């Protein structure tokens, strides 16, 4: 049995789904804790009890380990690690590049991963760093694709994944996505993005992921390699990333760093533990700082926080509130906010995947004006019927003989009274009007006027908004009058 992926619910480009790997099925979005057999702050069996359904380990480490090599070959990974869920193995391409191990080839790692019972197998791709020129990245992508094709000659039962490389060059990421799609491989990691995340280059991360996603099959399961901190999971999920792997829970613990969904703190600077996990409810900050088991306890806390964020994202997709979660998380760091704003430039691409109706629309500032729901409503406005004489009542009632009367609700714009209780106009929560939302609503007015050339339009509004509306409607001054 091979790998298959079924999408259950969607919001923006985020999906909840079922990833079937052989005879096992796991829920997505999915977290793969990274396990090093030599250093296990949390045992795989403990992770399984915490609800972890899959993990990832490194084939190179097992291959070179005097302690674990023979056991892995003879007993298999699941028995060695004492874990019943899905196990994915990274190829060791990074270690190969660092240590220059000429005896560890692409075919060698593929065969070794199969021999030790890996269920998601990674070929020896080249992780092209952000410092590489287009020409260098292009050559490395060529090698990666050759190795994927070579690996298919060994792993032909659907358990091979296909990393999407190309550095920071979006055209190469698109090319890689298209080539991977043509190979028909379901599980597709987007690789070499850790340097972008480590240096908070979230704007470029969005560009890279969205480029790859634009060419990958919608039925592909997307793994964002190395995306280990929960503060950016929501942004990644909104771009359609389904799987994350995390070594951060352990790495941060070794550095004395305490994770939260909003960011991380140095444990030594905390007087309180702002978390409801088992570790934080059974220890004070002082007790945790002074515990001889501090590193392990901190790793457990970090894992609880990471798993909770995955669950939170799944629920927000189900509720249709992923935009609100992205907005909340991305306001915790200026660079994340930069990534969020970059994502909003891809509204046309996002709108194709976003669901048509949701539970609600919460206005959270100017970024909300660029969301998919607003774009979709503006496109829908062109289909609304309008008579010969049309009134758009912005913020006051006006009596008169009009064939059609529209209300006005920013950031959407004009709406017929019959639509006043429907989504998104009726199911939206907005504060007191601001310039950004009114300007967005005026885009809807422009769409309505331009799609009804035979109609005469009249706008009723208070003096406080007239100048703003007039400025927003520049270019169509002769198509409407104020009343």
Automatic annotation (TrEMBL):
Catalytic activity: guanosine(15) in tRNA + 7-cyano-7-carbaguanine = 7-cyano-7-carbaguanosine(15) in tRNA + guanine
EC id: 2.4.2.48
InterPro entries assigned: ArchSynthase1/Queuine_TRR, TGT-like_sf, TgtA, tRNA_ribo_trans-like
Active site per UniProt: 90
Annotated cofactor note: Binds 1 zinc ion per subunit.
UniProt GO MF annotations: pentosyltransferase activity; zinc ion binding
Uppermost EC category: transferase
Binding residue positions for substrate: 125, 192
GO terms for cellular component: cytoplasm
Pathway it works in: tRNA modification; archaeosine-tRNA biosynthesis
GO biological process: tRNA wobble guanine modification
One family name in Pfam for this protein: TGT
Residues the entry annotates as binding Zn(2+): 275, 277, 280
UniProt keywords, alphabetically: Glycosyltransferase, Metal-binding, Transferase, tRNA processing, Zinc
Signal sequence extent: none
Cofactor section: Zn(2+)
tRNA-guanine(15) transglycosylase-like domain residues: 14-334
Signal as UniProt keyword: no
Protein task: Exchanges the guanine residue with 7-cyano-7-deazaguanine (preQ0) at position 15 in the dihydrouridine loop (D-loop) of archaeal tRNAs.
Family as reported in the entry's similarity comment: Belongs to the archaeosine tRNA-ribosyltransferase family.
UniProt xrefs under NCBIfam families: arcsn_tRNA_tgt (TIGR00432), tgt_general (TIGR00449)
Protein name, entry field: tRNA-guanine(15) transglycosylase
Organism: Methanochimaera problematica
Organism phylogeny: Archaea, Methanobacteriati, Methanobacteriota, Stenosarchaea group, Methanomicrobia
